[in-house]
Amino acid sequence: GRGAMERWTGRVALVTGASVGIGAAVARALVQHGMKGVGCARSVDKIEKLAAECQSAGYPGTLIPYKCDLSNEEEILSMFSAIKTLHQGVDVCINNAGLARPEPLLSGKTEGWRTMIDVNVMAVSICTREAYQSMKERNIDDGHIININSMNGHSVVPQSVVHFYSATKYAVTALTEGLRQELREAKTHIRATCISPGLVETGFAFKLHDNDPERAAATYESIRCLKAEDMANAVIYVLGAPPHVQVG
After folding, report:
1. Which residue among 45, 78, 148, 244 is the one 20 to 30 A from 180 at the CA level?
2. How many domains are there within the chain?
């Protein structure tokens, strides 16, 4: 309930890929619970619209839009330094941005693979490191890093268009567990969690099958999908768990 989230009131959460889908739903939920959400994406206008919606709905928190291309380390670092200047630092980091390109292993384009590595693996690692350093320099011992992973990070499905994507999500699984171990070694109570949904009804499949909207729509019609709000609820549950509870 609301009580579980009380200790996060007024604290800063970075949400990557906050313009659409899961990221937007998560950003909205955090602001509803009184957090300062820094939402970043390449297209910042959608986040600005969401921020205005949150404000007019009278949510206790605020959403701060930030334009950032996560495939560019310089932009990530300058975002973290802006957050430090304006809001002291990051207490919660939600690594949500991710994408799939339809590039099979036998015939795929290198650039599609590289984009997936840059956003799904490198950006997650850079944001995690910077968020941890931000917590450490302010002696924040109860921070939380949440990676939005995927069921594709735990099993490889026989769909050639998601094989490379799946490899990047397997990396996220390993990174989250490695992070948990390093945090434990550092004797901190900062928590690491990854959340691995199956199919969530967002614009994700339409970006994957960008030349075949029928196939994208069919992806979501085949089963009863999770909604972005279900994911936001999962994030709130994980964040609201008491500091001695680790949801893995």
Report:
1. 78
2. 1
